[in-house]
Every structure is written in structure tokens, then in C-alpha cells.
Amino acid sequence: MPYKTNQDTRSTGNPWVPSIDAFKGGSLSGDIQCDYLIIGAGFTGLSIAYNLLKQFGQEKKVVLIDSHTLGSGASGRNSGMLGPGIGAPFHRLEKKFGPEKARTMFQHTLDAVDSSIALIKREAFDCDLTVGSQFKVSTNSSNDQQLRLESDALHRNGFELNTYDEHSVQAIVNGPRYRYALEYSNTATINPVKLLRALAEKITALGGEIILNSACTELEEGHAWVGKKRINFERAVISMNGFSHSLGIQKGRVIPVSTSLMMSSPLSEQQRQQLALKTENAVIDNRKIFNYFRLTADNRLIFGGGAPFYSTSGIIAEQRRGSDGPGSVYKELSAGVNKYLPDLTGLHIEKVWTGTIGVTLDNFPVISSYRKSIDSVIGWCGHGLALSLAYGAAYAQQQKESSSQTGLYWHRKKAPYLSPIPLLPIASNSYIRYLNIMDNLRGG
Ligand SMILES: Cc1cc2nc3c(=O)[nH]c(=O)nc-3n(C[C@H](O)[C@H](O)[C@H](O)COP(=O)(O)OP(=O)(O)OC[C@H]3O[C@@H](n4cnc5c(N)ncnc54)[C@H](O)[C@@H]3O)c2cc1C
């Protein structure tokens, strides 16, 4: 399969980045004072800033800083699939937490998708919003059984969803290996970079200040340092997700992990027919190390997943420079296309890229108070788009009510501990390798 990187976008490795680069933000000329300082301008930080400004208007000064450009972490690099789910498949949540708690958790994620779509519509954010369905598909007898258990548990708990057998799943996507599908309806796809920019412009219009290329280097009760410049705050929120360890937050607990995507040229009419996937639908397979895909508004295939890997500081620097990631990434993603979408021929891949997410051992985020005046909202794992986008409204509400109690499981002091820092790369990569072997033993 040919692979050619588009020279126009090679400087970023991410086709959507030029639209973010056009957003410049303000600059930090000296020490400043604010009511709320938000550290990290991904969807979590932007959502919190937007909602605080909506809640308090000009009454509170809201400042958002980022070490790099807008959305230069996971938010500007993801596949733009807004779907439900958190922690584990529903039947496992039910087993671990009991039906009531599991229902609350899952409903929370459905609400996050709804409120994200509602926000985009209400503010008329131009981000190629396409509402449709997300299909979870099985690929072998083992994950097929798991998917059926999940769908039974969801039905039993009153969640309405369609399921598809081996034959009818082919009408959703032409993937001969797919055995069964579960449909989450009213999900959506977006162009995340367009949304980041629209949100950032709205925040600025509401009176918020976004300061880019300004890394927080030290954080204390009531003040933060950006190099030698000091920012005094009443309250701060750390929204640095997979980069939080650089400030010593949830070290060894929220692990920086790289995941990968590639994007094709626009598909021809013949390729659209070979794929048989509607633009409004997205597909995720049910393996432990899974693939997922969707079409963009201009009919490009975005295909992602494969084995993630620990993000060393060198890998993060490469991502920021716009590297395509190791050659193995393209090889693995291409192998995924060939294996699961074998009838799709002549695919021309234009771009490959990786991004760093914050992963916890139990796959739940961790929302906590780091210090008396500092909150931390991180560890969204692989499915944080809708959740991080929706989170700001809950945060602003809590601030208004001066409360910190939500009752949600992931509002907790700490995520589970994986290993001491020097062993993290080995521990993380070994665990990922183990999951991959399990999938392969079960037939892929
Ligand atoms: C390839 C890929 C595909 C994905 N696909 C999906 C998907 O389809 N659906 C889904 O739900 N989720 C997906 N995700 C996950 C989703 O993108 C994340 O969960 C979400 O974007 C997290 O947003 P965030 O704002 O918390 O973190 P980030 O976007 O990572 O933001 C953290 C920010 O903190 C900044 N920062 C770091 N250090 C400092 C510092 N010292 N000072 C100031 N700022 C700092 C970073 O520059 C960054 O901008 C995907 C992720 C990747 C990488």
C-alpha cells in the first residue's frame, strides 16, 4: 500500500493543526493576578474556562495557559468520535459496582455525549458535527461472547440499543471478520481541531484570556510560575492530562501513553462502496488492543488504534515537532486495515500521527483536589472527548455552589499506582504487550 506524507502538513504531522495554529492567544508580559488559572488548553481546560465564564461573566478573571499551542496534546490529535463509555464494558461495571452504580456511570457518559452535541449546536461551533451511531463490533469468539454479555447487561438495565448479527453487520460496514455489532445511537463525529479553535475564540469573546507557549514550571498554593513570571490565583485547575507528571501530579498513576491514527486521501466512489460505511457512523472493535475508524466530512478514512506505547519525553517532543511516529505505527495500522477491511483497495494514506493520552490502571479518570486551592482533572484514558468537553459545566456548577461532592466514582484522591517512575516505561509496555498477546491467542 503506498504511503506518502503530504508535504504541506508534514511540519505538524496532523492535518488539522494548521487551523489551530491560526489561533495565537495572548502573551504573558509580566506577573498577573486572576480568579481562575487553568493549566492546559485541551478540551478539559477549554471546557472549564468556557463554563466558568458563562457562569460568572466578567465577575471572575479566567486565565488559561498552555505550554505549547492550542490542543497540542491529545485534544488536537484525536479521531473526533464522541461516544459513551467509561472504565470498562457495561457488564463488567455492573459486576464490579452493582447495577445502580453502573447505570449511573454509563448514563453519565451518555449525558456527556448529549451535552457536547447540544453545546456545539447552541453555540453554532463550526466543527463538521455529524450525528449518527457508534458501532462496537466483535472480531473473534472470545470478544464476541463479551460483546453479547455487554449488550444483554445494557438491555437488562433499560438502555435501548440495536444489535446486529453477522449478516446484518455487513450493511453497516463491509468487514467480513465482524461477527456481531452493538449500536450506540445519537453519537457524533467532529473535527476536533475546528472545535478547539471555535471554543478558544468563544472564550476570548467572553473575556477569558488564553496564553500559549507558556509552560507552568511550578505550582504552589495560590500561585504558579511560568519561568520567572508569577501568576497569582484564587483557584487553579490542572488540566494537563497525560503531561501532569511533569508537575509531579498523580506520578506513577496517570501514565503518558501514545496512541496512533492515520488518515487517507478522500475515498473514491468505488472505495466508498467497498467500505460501505456511512459518514455519520463510526466503528470500534471489541479487542483489548483495538482498531476504530470513521469517515471525515470530505470522505477521508481515519483509522486508529493498534498497540499503544509509553510516551517518553523524547516521543512527546517528536509529537510536538509533528513526526509521523515510529515506522511500526504505519505498519501496524495498515495491517489492521488489510485484515479487517480487506475489500478496501488502493487506499492512499496521507498522514500518520500519534498523540499522548493520560491512562490509569483501572481506566477511570481521576478528578481530585491537589491542594486546597488547586483542583486536578486528568486521566481520561482513550475515551475522554465527550467527557472532557462536558466536564466544565459540572465544574462551574460546583464552583457556584461551593461544593465538591458529585458522588461519581472517578472523583477520588488517587488513581491506582502502577510502578515507580523509572520502571514506568517497562511496566506500561509490558502490560500492553500482554494485552496484545491475549488478543492474538484468541484469534485477533
Ligand atoms: C490518537 C488519539 C485518538 C483519540 N481518539 C479519541 C476519540 O475518538 N474519542 C474520544 O473520546 N477520545 C479520543 N482520544 C482521547 C481524547 O483526545 C482525550 O481524552 C482528550 O482530548 C483529553 O483532553 P485534555 O484536555 O484532558 O488533555 P490534552 O488535550 O492532552 O491537554 C493537555 C494540555 O496540557 C498542556 N500542558 C502540558 N504540560 C503543561 C504545562 N507544564 N503547562 C501548561 N500546559 C501544559 C499540553 O500542551 C496540552 O495542550 C484520542 C486521543 C488520541 C491521542
TrEMBL record:
Assigned GO CC terms: cytoplasm
GO MF annotation terms: oxidoreductase activity
Pfam families in the record: DAO (PF01266)
InterPro entries: FAD-dep_OxRdtase, FAD/NAD-bd_sf
Positions of the FAD dependent oxidoreductase domain: 35-397
Residue runs in coiled coils: none
Keywords: Oxidoreductase
Domain of life, per lineage: Bacteria
Protein known as: FAD dependent oxidoreductase domain-containing protein
